[in-house]
Amino acid sequence: MRFLQVHLLLGVTSALVIQSVPWKVPCPRQCVCQIKPWYSPRSVYKEAPTVDCNDLLLSRLPDSLPAETQTLRLQSNLISSLDQTELQGLANLTELDLSQNSFTSARHLRITGMPGLLCLHLEENQFRHLPEAAFSGFPGLQELYLNHNQLRNISPGAFTGLDNLLRLHLNSNRLCAVDRRWFHALPHLEVLMIGDNPVEVIQDLNFKPLGSLRSLVLAGMGLRELSEWAFEGLASLESVSFYDNRLTKVPKKALQKVSGLKFLDLNKNPIQLCFNPRLSYVHPQAFQRLSSMESLMLNSNALSALHRQTIRSLPGLQEISLHTNPIRCDCLIRWVGAEDDRPVRFIEPQSTFCSEPPELKARRVKEVSFREMANSCLPLIAPGTFPSHARVRLVKACQGGPSSSLKEEECPGQEQLEKPSICPPVPTAGECHLDTQQSQKQNSAKDCSSVDNASSTSDNFQNIQPQSC
Ligand SMILES: *[C@@H]1O[C@H](CO)[C@@H](O)[C@H](O)[C@H]1NC(C)=O
Ligand SMILES: *[C@@H]1O[C@H](CO)[C@@H](O)[C@H](O)[C@H]1NC(C)=O
Fold first, then answer.
1. Using a 6 Å cutoff on CB, does residue 91 contact ligand 1?
2. Which residues span the domain enclosing 446?
3. pLDDT value, residue 289
4. Domain contains 352
5. Which atom of ligand 1 is nearest to the CA of 91?
6. Could you tell me if 294 and 317 are in contact, meaning their C-beta atoms sit under 8 angstroms apart?
7. For 82-91, 232-241, 434-443, which range has the lowest pLDDT when averaged over its residues?
8. What is the rounded CA–CA span in Å between residue 169 and residue 156?
9. pLDDT of residue 274
10. Which ligand number lies closest to the CA of residue 452?
11. Considering only CA atoms, which residue is closest to atom 9 of ligand 1?
12. Is a pLDDT exceeding 80 seen at residue 37?
C-alpha cells in the first residue's frame, strides 16, 4: 500500500497494461520473445523487444540473444557472474533483470561499458559488500535494485559513476548505519528505499547530498528518534515513510526542515505521551511549517487524540489515516465533525472507531456527531498558568474513595505538562477527576472554561483524560 502511494505520488502509471505481441525472431531455447510495453524510470513509454528467460536453472546467459533486445529478464536462475562479452552486441539493452540469482560479490559483475542500460535488477541475490565504483560500467543507470540481499557494508564510493541514478532500492539488507558519503555520487537521486535494515540511528546530515530526493522510505528500521538535523539538505523531499518503527513521538524538529513534505507515514509507531497509552497524542504543533502536506498516515499507533490545531496547521491536508488507534471521541477530535473546517478525507473510515468514552465505543469516528463528542469533553489544562518553577504532577483521585487509591502519573521532560495549570476539576463520569500536587496557585476561572464552552478555547488547552478508578 505504501509503495503504491509512493509511486502514485511520483506519477508512475504502472497500472496501464497493454497487450504483449509476439516478436518474430530466433529466440533462445526455452525463452519467450515478445514486444512488451515498458516504462523508463522517467515514465517514458516504449514498446520494448523483450526476452524472458525466467526460472530456467540457467547458470549463465543464453547464447545468441537477439541483437534488438531491449529488456532481458533472467529472474530466478542460478547465475553468479556476468561478463561484458556475454552482453556484447546488445547495444540497445535498457533493462536487465538478474533478481533471484546467485551473485555473492559485485566483483563477479565484470561489466566495463553498458551506457544504455537504465534499469538493473539485482535484488534477492547474496551480495554482502559493495566495493568502490561497483557499478561504474553502467553510467546511464537510472534505477538500481539491491534490496533483499545481505549487504552489511557499502564502500563510501560504491556508487561512483552513477550520476544519472534516480531510484535506489537498498531495503531489506543488513546495514547498521547510513553513510552520507554514499550519496555524494548521486546528485539526481529522487527515491531512496532503505527500510528494513537494522539502522537504529539516523545521524545528523545523513542525507545531506540528496538535494533532489523526493521520496524516502525508512520503514521497519527500529528507529527510536530522529535528530533535528537528520533531514538537512533534503530540499525536494515530498514523501517520507517511518512505517513500523519505534518512534515514541513525532520527529517534529526534523520534519520542520522539509517544508515541501506532502506525504508522511507514521503508521505502526508507539507514539505516545508519558509512556501512558491512555494519554497518547500528537503535539498540536508537531507539523508546523509543513504547508504542502497532503496525506498523513497515523494508523496503528497508540493515539487517543489528534488536536484540531494539528489539522489546522496543515492547510494542504486532504486525507488522513487514523484507524487502529485507541481514539477517544471527545473535544480533541471534534474537528472531524466541525463544519467550518475544510473536509479532510478519512482513509478507511469504515475501520476508524472510537475506543472511548464507553458510550461511544465502537462507533465510527466519522459518524459521531459534533454534539455527542462535545458531551464527553474532559477537564482542560492551560499551559503557562502555573509559575514556571512549579513541577506539577497530575493525580487522579476517586471522589469519596479511600486515599490509598490515589495514583500519580508523572511526565518527565514533557513540556506540555511541566507548567500547566489545571481547571477546577469537572467530574464527567461522576467518579474521577484530576488534581494537582505541589501547585501553589489554584488558578480558576481566568483561563479555564467549563467543559460546555470548550469549543471556543480548546485550541489553547490540553485535554487530560482520567482513567477509570
Ligand atoms: C537500436 O536502436 C536504434 C534506435 O532506435 C535503432 O536505429 C537500431 O537499429 C537499434 N539497434 C539494434 C541492434 O536493434
Ligand atoms: C464561550 O466563549 C465565548 C468566547 O470565548 C463566549 O463568547 C461565549 O458566550 C461562551 N459561551 C458559553 C456558553 O459560555
1. yes
2. 380-463
3. 67
4. no
5. 13
6. yes
7. 434-443
8. 17
9. 34
10. 2
11. 68
12. yes
Is residue 192 assigned to a domain? no
Asked if residue 420 belongs to a domain, the reply is yes
Q: How confident is the model at residue 283 (pLDDT cuts 50, 70, 90)?
A: low
Ligand 1 pocket member 47 (CB < 6 A): no
Confirm or reject: Cβ of 453 under 6 Å from ligand 2: yes
Q: Whose CA is nearest to atom 11 of ligand 2?
A: 453
Nearest of 305, 341, 254 to residue 416 by alpha carbon: 305
Task: Give residues with Cβ within 8 angstroms of 398, minimum separation 6.
Answer: 405, 431, 432, 469
Q: Is 18 in the pocket of ligand 1 (CB under 6 A)?
A: no
Residue 172 falls in which region: left (phi positive, over 0), alpha (psi -120 to 50) or beta = left
pLDDT at 328: 79
* Parallel, antiparallel or unpaired: strands 239-241 and 263-265: parallel
Which three three-digit cell numbers place residue 346?
A: 478519512
Number of structural domains in the chain: 1
Residue from 23, 44, 51, 92 whose mutation best tests the ligand 1 pocket (most atoms within 8 A of CB) = 92
242 burial (CB, 10 Å; 0-12 / 13-18 / 19+) is buried
Q: Of the bound ligands, which one is closest to the alpha carbon of residue 25?
A: 1
Task: Quote the DSSP letter at residue 139.
Answer: T
Q: What are residue 72's DSSP bridge partners? A: 51, 96
pLDDT at 294 over 70: yes
Stretch 100-117: mean pLDDT: 95
C-alpha cell of residue 348: 478507511
CA distance 433 to 424: 9
Using CA atoms, how far apart are residues 336 and 316, in angstroms rounded to an integer?
A: 16
> What's the 360 CA to ligand 2 centre distance in angstroms?
26
Report H helices in 265-350. 308-312
Give the closest residue (by CA) to ligand 1 atom 12: 68
Q: How far is CA 327 from CA 228, 347, 377, 388, in A?
A: 29, 15, 13, 31
Q: Quick check: 380 and 416 in contact, CB under 8 A?
A: no
**408 lies in a domain?**
yes
405 lines ligand 2 (CB under 6 A): no
The answer to whether the pTM exceeds 0.85 is no
